Structures are given as C-alpha cells and as structure tokens.
Amino acid sequence: MSALKTIAQAWKVKEIRQKMIFTFWMLVIFRIGSNIPVPGMDREILSQVFDGGTGLFALFDLFSGGAFSQFTIFALSITPYITASIILQLLAVAIPALERLTKEGPEGRKKMAQYTRYLTVVLALVQAVGLTVGLFRRALISTNIFNVIVIVLTLAAGTAFLMWLGEQINERGIGNGISLLIFAGIISRVPSAVHSTAIKVINGQVSIIGLIIFLVFAVIVIVGIIMIQQGQRKVPVQYAKRVVGRKMYGGQSTFIPIKVNQAGVMPVIFSLSLLQFPLTLTYFWPNSGFAAFVTNWLSPYGNAAGVTIYTIFNAVLIVAFTYFYTAISFNPVEIAGNLKNNGGFIPGIRPGRPTAEYLAKVMSRITFVGAVFLVIIAILPTIISQFTALDFNFGGTSLLIAVGVALDTVKQLDNQLLMRNYEGFLK
Length: 427
Fold this sequence. Notes:
It is built from 19 helices and 5 strands. By secondary structure, it is mostly helical. The strands form 2 sheets. A 3-stranded antiparallel β-sheet has the order 4-1-5.
C-alpha cells in the first residue's frame, strides 16, 4: 500500500509525472521493437529450434521478454551489456588501472561506462555472428554474405539501441533503465501465463482449489522476497571527537548497513548459466545418447532422480556464487581502512585489522542467510512443477528481478519526493 501511495503522490508532482510518462513510452518502444522480426530468417525453422524452451536459450528469452525466441531486432536484448558490466567489474578487482578508475568519482565512473559501451558493442557483434552463422544457420533463408551481414548488424544495432534507451531512462526518466527493460520483458509474460492457466482450469487440468493455494503461496513468496531484499544488519559506528581550530567535529553515531542479500540475483543467473549449458548442447545432438542422458539426469524436466540431482547442484552452486559475488562487492579491509582514516570505530572492536575481521565474520553469517534464501527461491518453481500441473514461466529468478526492480524504482520515487519536500521547506 505504501508503494501505491508513493506512486500516487509522485504523479501529482508535474516534473516527476513527466519522468514517469517518459519512462512508460520508452518501455512501450522496447515492447514494439521486441515484436519486429529480423529479416532473412525462416520463422518455421526458428519455432522448431525453440520448441521446448530449455537450456541457456530459456534464460536469454527471459531477459529479452520473448524477443529471443521470436528472433526480433531486440533478440540479444541487453545481455551483452550485462556481460560487459560483469567482465569489467571482475577485471577491476584484478587490474589496478581499472580499480583506480572506479575510485576516481564521477569522471572515473564515466570512463568505466564508456568502456562498458565499447565492450557491449563488441560482444553484441560476436554473439550476433555466433547465432547467425552458428546456432541458427539452418534458419537462414539465404546464406549469401549480404544477408548474413544485414542480420548481424540488425541484432547488434538492436542491442546498442536498447543500451541507449536505458541511458535515456536513467537521464530523463525514473529508475534504472537497464533493469526496467528486463522488468518490462518479464512482466510481458504475465498475460500469456494467466491465459494458459485459465485454459487449464477450464479444461479441468488444474482445480480451482489448487489454483487458489498456488496464488496464496505466490503472495507469501513475494512478501518473503520483499522482506529479504530490504533486510539489513546495521553495524553501529562511533566517530571520535576532534578539535579543529575552535570547532569540535565528530562524536556522532551512525551505522554500516550490510544487506542480507548483498549479491542480488547474480548467483542464481550464474548457476543457471552453468547448469543449463549441457541442455543447450542438446540442441546440436537432439537424438543422441548425450541428449537423453542430460535430459533425464541433469535437467528439471527429467525423471525424479534427475530432478533431484539438478536441484542439489543448483543449490550448491548458488551458495558458492553468493559467497564469491559478495566477496567481490563487499571489501571489509577497505571499509575498515576508511573508518580508521576518518576516526570511526565499531564499539568494542579495535580499529584496523580487528574491525576488518569482525565485518568479514558478520558478512559471512549474513551471506549464509541470503544464500539459503536464494536457494529456496530458485528451487521452488522446480518443486511446484513436480507436484502440480501449473507451468508458470514466471519463476524464482523472474520474481527476484521483478520485485527487486520494483522496490528500487519506488525507492527512487521516494527520494524524488523527499528532495522536493525539503526544497519546499527551505523556501
């Protein structure tokens, strides 16, 4: 209710209303482009390739809002941008020059954004070539060089346009542009999921009571996601008093917020990418023994034992990637050093190395809770599909992304309203 109240209040402010309308039209453009097909491809062959919707193709299709399976101009979506961002983020840990850029304030971030754009275009071209002359070569209407170049440039240009669209939302709209594009793609699947479920209820494949139980369960899951996403451990920090000239500084108390789910949805995406890679290979050898083995023993669609093995691997990988990604995004040594340099300390903990060890210990415990949460959210759709006839594409990963983006967008609206309230008070 508070989110709806925030949106209603934001709509009354002319400047914020204009930003909201601008964001809406940018998302409309994204959805229109998601339905414009790439020229030179045979649609019937493409539908046969995507029949089943498993492997990494299903993950790509999730981010593109169905544009990948339809092979439209936005088929690559913003996955090259996400990949480029992750690569540069990891390289910043290993390469001192990039690490310095991340600490140089606005100018450094601007330079890193520029590198991300360049790498995004390169990755988009590489992926476009791989899809056109590799995976979907048999769907080409003509294999002449001109047709291939047109398809490759169309796919790469679509990704570049989406990247520009996201930046426009960042500058002139509300929310994070790239996240909102993913959000729009996920939400676009809801009407078809509702329609298919309604048909199953009408045909008697799903009972009314089963549907009601599922909806109640879904609401509970969403509430749990919101609680965990917003949950944080507040580590108290005290700043020592110091006298500079005739003035006294410091002495105030604050805290370090440590989020329960510091890694976000990235561990789930990494885990799915690894686990579904063998499923993707089955597209190349559909009738082989390898395909039968993977489908039965390493997929969420096989026999009971195979589903169990897949679920266990998924849980282990999610926990491992959660700790890995948290270690990259949260540096206790650096935080402890900043506290010491600014005269801050955690009550009862000595500054320097003891503070870093304490923060690492707290982070490790909090991360375990976040990892268990991600595991539960990720494996719930698999468990539900084993015991019910419901087949929602709106799975755990989709819910995590959708709820997370919605919360961040509402928070930005709150900040915009807060700024204007302060401005009015000063006047």
